[in-house]
Amino acid sequence: MWMQHNKVKNLAIAIQPLDGLLIGSGETFSFWRRVGRPTKRKGFVEGMELSRGEASSGIGGGICQIANVLHWLVLHSPLVVKERSTHSFGCSVFYNYVDFRFYNPTPTTFQLQLWLSERFLEAELRASEQISFTYSVLEKDHAFERVGDQVFRRNELWRRILDRRSGAHVRDEFIKRNRVLVKYKID
């Protein structure tokens, strides 16, 4: 539990340079350019990191959760992911090697809002004007596969785009194909 408590401390530090940030037309957001290297000097503490599906501790551990929520917001907007890596549980960031970046190809300015509630990391993506489409994420081709003693979960993630006024389906965009080792018991 100490890693979970420290993760919350790290999240509180890492959201400060992101909360209220404006992403204008033509701009590219970089997680590490905004947050910077997580160091003890900046107040970051040992928290939970995930590497190859295993939990360990590291300075700044847990701030991948911010990259995950930002990725989720981007998928529900016209913003475009430019760089994203994954670990077995979601969007991964690792200072100076693995960044999360997205681009604003629209004339609209977007604003990030991030805060910690009593139990959650909360976030909003605000727009300077109403956007023409709505976005949702859907799963296709979900299955569990047993290979020897191991079980893998596979699926595809897609982004569905609908016209905001008419509700008409515009298109589906492929996001990612997943195949990950299940770390919990399945009967």
Short description:
With 187 residues, the protein is an alpha+beta fold.
Q: Could you please describe the fold and organization of this structure?
A:
The chain is of the alpha+beta class. The chain has 2 domains: 127 residues, no CATH class; 56 residues, no CATH class. Helix content is 17%, strand content 46%. The protein has 3 helices and 13 strands, in the order αββαββαβββββββββ. A 3-stranded antiparallel sheet has the order 1-9-10. The chain has a 3-stranded antiparallel sheet with strand order 2-8-5. A 3-stranded antiparallel sheet has the order 11-12-13, with no helix packed on it. The two termini are 28 Å apart. The model has no long low-confidence stretch (mean pLDDT 90).
What is the strand and helix layout of this fold?
Elements lengths: L1 H14 L6 E2 L4 E3 H5 L10 E6 L2 E6 L4 H12 L4 E4 L1 E3 L2 E3 L8 E3 L6 E7 L4 E7 L5 E15 L2 E14 L5 E13 L6
Antiparallel strand pairs: 1-9, 2-8, 3-4, 5-8, 6-7, 9-10, 11-12, 12-13
So how many helices?
3
| Low-pLDDT regions | none
Largest beta sheet: what is the strand line-up?
1-9-10
Distance between the termini: 28 Å
The pLDDT mean sits at 90
Q: Structural class of the secondary elements?
A: alpha+beta
The helix content, as a percent range, equals 10-25%
Count of β-strands: 13
- Range of strand content: over 45%
What's the domain count? 2
Largest sheet: 3 strands, antiparallel
**H/E element order:** HEEHEEHEEEEEEEEE
Overall body shape: flat
Radius of gyration: 18 Å
